[in-house]
Protein: YgjP-like metallopeptidase domain-containing protein
Amino acid sequence: MKPRPSPNYLAGYPTHLIDQVQQLIATDKLGPGLLRKYPRCHEVRTDRALYDYVQELKGRHLRNAEALSKVAFDGKLHVLHKALGLHTTVARVQGVRLKAKREIRIANVFREMPEEFLRMIVVHELAHLKEREHGKAFYQLCQHMEPDYHQLEFDLRAYLSLLEATGKPLWPARQDGKLRAFSALPIPVPHAGSHSDPDL
Ligand SMILES: [Zn+2]
Structure:
């Protein structure tokens, strides 16, 4: 395997952070670091489970936003095109009224990720129910739903850079649907006070 820097997912971040991620990928340290910070894959395995997960978050933070007509994982969304999630307004004719339907589709790559990353992308897509553009109000809403939003987005983008370089998911779901026992891995505990993740 030849690690290859992939700055696409990190475009817009300060150069020193991008350099740091690329360095961690090149020295095979990013994967272990992410696994220490996020040891487990979530258990949202089906579209139905994803629907319930999204509705729970929406009910907690955005009860008055428009109702969602559909929530699903989508294998056609390619993260390479930066389409991590997709919020769509589909106009459907109902009798004589034109009714807008809101859908949330989440890229398949999020099936095999820690719950924190899934939450981040769902929060992002939910925020679009209220704010179309990625402006200040949009990110304030994201942080309202998930105070650690910015850190999670950065960690996710670092992971996607790693995934592009190695092609190996860090949290692969097994074919039989059961989760790999990451808890059985010897995960070193950082010494309290002497360690902080390098801006990840
Ligand atoms: Zn967006």
